[in-house]
Amino acid sequence: MTHQLIIGNRLYFSWSLAAWLMVERFGLADQVKTTVLYPASEDGVAALMTDYAPARTLPTMITAGGAILSDSMAIAEELASLFPNAGLWPAAPLARGTARTLANEMHSSFRNLRSDWPVNLHRSYAPIIPSPAVAAELDRLEEIWTHARRVTAQDTPWLCGDYSIADAIFAPMAVRLANYGFDTRPTTKAYVAAHLADPALRRWRAMGLAANQTSDVFEYDGSARPWPGPASLAAAPVTDGTAENATCPYSGDPVTHLLQIDGRIFGFCNAFCRDKTVADPAAWPAFMALYQS
């Protein structure tokens, strides 16, 4: 039984990131297939959704039974219902209740942060002075994230124990705070760092960089600075050489495209497989197993 998740441009579409993480982080990629759309602007989303009516927003999930879910929390709850053993919500009642209220507050609140500081996964910006409304929401994030970790007595990097829907929902917010240099308060700093180091989020970003569908419409007018996440291993595409591997580490198909890293050459079955690896080699376990063998 296969479901479909329709998402937007990985470099900019924050709720699409959250929904995809719910699929990727809980091992559901074989059951939920992903389709990526590239609207030229937020206003252009509906025009690309005609095949999925009445949905007109991204992300949207189409279940195998034909239900059309075009709201992020609806997608979250439906995934939790479809896959009750996947652990999308914490099992312990205190942690589960805390995670649910956090996820829903993110879904319904923080409108100033969401509108003033757009998510951008290929560019970060020099810190700016937040408006009073944004500053109040930054205070609120530190408060609720600290509360969640305290009441659930967690020693994991996440809010309520193991990674849950709440963490997936807050991943785009963590990117925002890193983008604009406001990941400085104690709980916020550690929590944002955990997201930036998360291999799943790094794979999402690497795929966005590989697709290279940038748009000035989605960019923020500010001074750029280096990406604040972990530094990537230095890799580059090449056209000549002999790959150490005969088949792509992802598909198993014969290699046609090459990259070089540390003087070694590896092959992939297409340009996208190569380019997503060039963007962040360490984010891809299948490649790293080959690289370290």
Task: Give the helix/strand layout.
Elements: E1 3-7, H1 14-24, E2 32-36, H2 45-48, E3 60-62, E4 68-69, H3 72-82, H4 93-108, H5 111-116, E5 124-125, H6 132-151, H7 165-179, H8 186-197, H9 199-211, E6 224-225, E7 235-238, E8 257-261, E9 264-268, H10 271-279, H11 285-292
Parallel strand pairs: 1-2
Antiparallel strand pairs: 1-3, 3-4, 5-6, 7-8, 8-9
Helix pairs in contact: 1-3, 1-7, 4-6, 4-7, 6-8, 7-8, 9-10
Short description:
With 293 residues, the chain is an alpha+beta fold. The chain has three domains: 80 residues, Glutaredoxin, CATH 3.40.30.10; 109 residues, Glutathione S-transferase Yfyf (Class Pi), Chain A, domain 2 (Up-down Bundle), CATH 1.20.1050; 58 residues, no CATH class. It is 43% helix and 11% strand.
Would you kindly provide a written description of the structure presented here, covering whatever features stand out?
With 293 residues, the chain is of the alpha+beta class. The protein folds into 3 domains: 80 residues, Glutaredoxin (3-Layer(aba) Sandwich); 109 residues, Up-down Bundle (Glutathione S-transferase Yfyf (Class Pi), Chain A, domain 2), CATH 1.20.1050; 58 residues, no CATH class. The protein is built from 11 helices and 9 strands. Strands 2-1-3-4 form a 4-stranded mixed beta sheet. It has a 3-stranded antiparallel beta sheet with strand order 7-8-9, covered by helices on one side.
Shape: globular
What characterizes the major β-sheet?
4 strands, mixed
Supply the CATH class of the largest domain: Mainly Alpha
Q: Helix amount, in percent?
A: 40-55%
SS field, number of helical segments: 11
Overall CATH architecture of the largest domain: Up-down Bundle
N-C termini distance = 35 Å
Number of distinct beta strands: 9
* Oligomeric organization of the protein chains: single chain
Strands side by side in the biggest sheet: 2-1-3-4
Stretches with pLDDT under 50, minimum 5 residues? none
Helix and strand element order: EHEHEEHHHEHHHHEEEEHH
